[in-house]
Design brief:
- The longest helix has 36 residues, at 178-213.
- A hairpin with a 4-residue loop joins strand 17 (652-653) and strand 18 (658-659).
- By secondary structure, this protein is of the alpha/beta class.
- The protein has 30 helices and 24 strands.
- The termini are far apart.
- Strands 5-10-9-6-8-7 form a 6-stranded parallel sheet.
- It is globular and about 85 Å long.
């Protein structure tokens, strides 16, 4: 008997595991017309477990060091040998070469991404050249599938691969530059390999988890009924706005109707250009529901750049989708163990995006496409056949723009996705070196000029000083504006700046009824929700309010002040800040949004903000623009911002001296000039360094760690549960509940908390903060003395 897994007294044979994984992988890959490729990779992925050496290891009869038995290479070697034998009898001598290598790559890497090629070495060829028990394994592969079955599947897989390649050829022809076309094509092939890798990893882990828990995962979800239910709930919500007849409310209804009607069109990639406060979240969701109904889509994804937007809009979407159909995902708690033969039970239950309606962050979305973490790779295929709403698309990090564009093109063309780019400040992603390929009818609402005319409720007023404002001067300016307006929102670029301005405003002669609030990403989502509710309540009661915060509030948060002061950043930030001022047109005049430049802000590590400041200052100083909120002004701002930045927008890395775009496409830095021309030609588009690129890729430059904080009694109870002995299959559900009590901290904060015994790890691997290191006013603090100083 060949054993794949053991749980208590139960045994899953390698044959059963491979066949069951193949069925699941085939079903997953149907979404992009690659079911036979999925089935083939699933059948052979664990062929290496057919050796007696693995049997001795898995039964504990022989102690083996971690990683000593490589069970992933055998299936990869076998499929390349079968392909070589078929090629030898084929008029096209390379017919099965490319598809066998792709299937081989994903089998070899199903426990961790690998570099196909690095530093002059074909890593895949080297990996499959080993002989570890291979003769024994090859003699037993017929126990899983006979040679005729494998050959027939390889033929069918080659047909699927050729059809996908033809679609990629068509996609590349829309890029007019031949050199860039080659890079784009190689990048698309790499994304296809990652997509197939995602299918195999998810199928393997799903089947393993089912065996371990003695369950059966349902992968055939019927969502047609859900879309109808969501439409009904959304319509009831819309009815609550029916009696609002002011100019702005009427225009919001008009925008919503145009979005609904646009769902009659087949959509690839389009834009939803709506002024701030124009109701784009519900309008885009209305489109998505109708589109899913009409075009039989499987999922709706809502992607937000900031936690504040995700938190607010998740509440709206959850109410329409229902708790059981909705997932809000923004944190990965569990670290991964790189092991060829072992997966912890917790890893089998990492978040896999198997819910019909998902709200997640830009970080998690881009990680699914580019990160080296297997948990992230696993999620990628779940994007197929989805409507993907990307809110505040201008927040895509500049270094990721070229890869983002190519990935969106791939998701649209190969994965059957419909992608909606939402923003009042649309960046010119279609005019860069690797452009976003928008639909010819790319505006969901058609002509949007009247929308912007009606929604003009503010005046942007630069108050730039030659040498900038000190914190004291900035606070004095803000205090003066507060006295004039009666309430004030202050948005700065860093958390430390927010604390400095907040502290100085606290020293001003504020009345007892004045509500002065500090908002920070050092606070957990539930804490911020409560603070934002406190602000709204105070504003509704016409109390004097000052809120000091960072950009976490400036996009998507439905809140309205009479005056906003924005520390100089990009013009897109200014527009979003203006969206928190006179949001519903409640004042009978335009309200002021002031731009000031704070010289004390330290932006040394925030290069994108610094560059955005420079370009915005250039626009402001030119005196050529009368309205900084106009779409035309924003387009010119983005053109200046993106000018001559192809390398930066391809994610430049220092080691090796290249870009992640190159590592995930032609990988020119590591090509070996000594290899034959024939070999290079056959492997030109499959030389990606996935492992290296995955390790280097970070959406946010400073690596962060997610910490669960003991904010309230509910958080305390969740932490107690995580500290107890709980079944692995329940951990994911508990961690989902914990998300609203999590904070992402940087490495330096993590070190300080570690040194002060301020954090600890619970059995499932999640990290928890000690209670004395969390403050009501500021969130996470690194030491008690710091908390006392801040409060004073």
């Amino acid at each position: 008997m060949n054993i794949a897994h053991i749980k208590d007294e139960r045994i899953q044979t390698t044959e059963d595991h491979c066949r069951e994984t193949a069925e699941i992988a085939s079903k997953f890959a149907e979404d992009f017309s690659a079911s036979d490729i999925g089935r083939l990779s699933g059948l052979l992925h664990d062929a290496g477990k057919l050796s007696e050496a693995f049997n001795l290891y898995i039964t504990g009869k022989k102690k083996v060091a971690r990683g000593q038995i490589d069970h992933s290479f055998a299936g990869a070697r076998y499929i390349t040998e079968v392909a070589d034998s078929m090629n030898a009898n084929c008029t096209d001598a390379d017919r099965y070469y490319a598809i066998s290598r792709i299937v081989g790559h994903i089998i070899a890497a199903h426990h961790g991404l690998q570099d196909n090629y690095d530093n002059g070495t074909d890593r895949f060829r080297k990996r499959i050249s080993k002989d570890d028990f291979y003769s024994e394994i090859a003699g037993k592969i017929s126990d899983i599938a006979d040679e005729a079955t494998v050959k027939n599947l390889l033929k069918a897989s080659e047909t699927e691969y050729r059809e996908i390649k033809n679609r990629l050829d068509t996609l590349c022809k829309r890029t007019n530059d031949n050199k860039k076309c080659n890079v784009a094509y190689a990048f698309y092939i790499g994304l296809l390999e990652r997509l197939l890798q995602s299918v195999l990893i998810d199928a393997d882990r799903t089947n393993t988890a089912d065996f371990m828990n003695d369950t059966q995962t349902n992968i055939n979800t019927d969502v047609a009924t859900l879309w109808a239910e969501m439409e009904s709930r959304l319509n009831r919500k819309r009815e609550s706005f029916a009696n609002k007849c002011d100019r702005i409310s009427l225009q919001r209804k008009n925008i919503s109707q145009r979005c609904y009607e646009f769902a009659a069109n087949k959509v690839g990639i389009c834009r939803l250009i709506v002024p701030t406060g124009g109701g784009k979240t519900l309008s885009s969701l209305r489109f998505a529901i109708e589109y899913c109904k009409k075009w039989k889509m499987k999922k709706i994804f809502y992607i937000a750049p900031f936690m504040s937007i995700l938190e607010q809009n998740s509440d709206e979407i959850r109410g329409i989708a229902g708790d059981e159909n909705f997932l809000e995902h923004h944190s990965d708690f569990l670290s991964e163990i790189e092991d060829e033969n072992e997966l912890s039970e917790y890893e089998l239950h990492t978040e896999r995006w198997d819910i019909p309606v998902i709200a997640t962050t830009m970080v998690q979305f881009l990680n699914a496409l580019f990160s080296g973490k297997i948990s992230a790779v696993r999620r990628m295929h779940q994007l197929c056949k989805s409507v993907i709403i990307i809110d505040e698309v201008q927040s895509v990090p500049q270094k990721c723009i070229n890869m983002f564009n190519l990935a969106m093109n791939f998701l649209s063309e190969i994965c059957g996705c419909t992608i909606i780019l939402c923003s009042a400040t649309q960046p010119v992603f279609d005019k860069v070196d690797y452009p976003l390929l928008l639909d010819s009818n790319d505006s969901m609402t058609g002509d949007y000029s009247e929308d912007f005319n009606i929604f003009k409720r503010t005046d942007v007023i630069p108050k730039i000083e030659k040498y900038g404002y000190s914190y004291e001067q900035a606070a004095e300016f803000c205090y003066h504006q507060f006295c004039e307006a009666g309430n004030l929102l202050v948005i700065v670029n860093t958390k430390s700046s927010a604390l400095e301005v907040y502290g100085r405003l606290k020293e001003k002669n504020l009345s007892e009824e004045t509500v002065l609030i500090h908002l920070s990403t050092n606070m957990c989502p539930e804490h911020r929700r409560e603070r934002i509710k406190e602000i709204r309540d105070a504003l509704d009661q016409s109390k004097p309010v000052i809120c000091v915060t960072t950009q976490l509030i400036e996009a998507g948060v439905d809140i309205s002040f009479k005056c906003v002061v924005r520390s100089l950043a990009g013009l897109d930030n200014v527009v979003q800040a203006a969206g928190r001022c006179n949001r519903h047109g409640e004042e009978d005049k335009n309200c002021p949004v002031y731009i000031i430049n704070i010289k004390d802000e330290n932006l040394a590590k925030l290069k994108e903000i610094k560059e955005s400041q420079r370009v915005a200052r250039k626009i402001i100083d030119s005196d050529s623009y009368s309205d900084y909120l106009e779409v035309k002004t924003l387009s010119e701002y983005y053109s200046l911002l993106f000018k001559d930045k192809n390398t930066e927008m391809s994610y430049k890395v220092e080691y090796p001296d290249t870009t992640i775009l190159d590592l995930l496409s032609l990988n020119m830095k590591w090509h070996n000039p000594c290899l034959s021309k024939d070999y290079c030609k056959k492997n030109e588009y499959s030389a990606q360094a996935f492992k290296t690129a995955g390790k280097l890729f970070e959406v946010i430059d400073n690596h962060t760690i997610n910490v669960i904080v003991p904010y309230n009694e509910d958080a305390d109870n969740i932490i107690k549960e995580l500290c107890s002995e709980i079944p692995a299959d329940r951990v994911n559900a508990i961690l989902r509940k914990a998300q609203k009590y999590t904070v992402s901290i940087y490495q330096n904060t993590n070190k300080k908390l570690n040194d002060s015994n301020g954090i600890y790890r619970v059995p499932c691997g999640a990290i928890v903060l000690e209670k004395e290191f969390y403050c009501e006013d500021f969130g996470i603090t690194t030491e008690a003395s710091e908390m006392e100083t801040l409060i004073l």
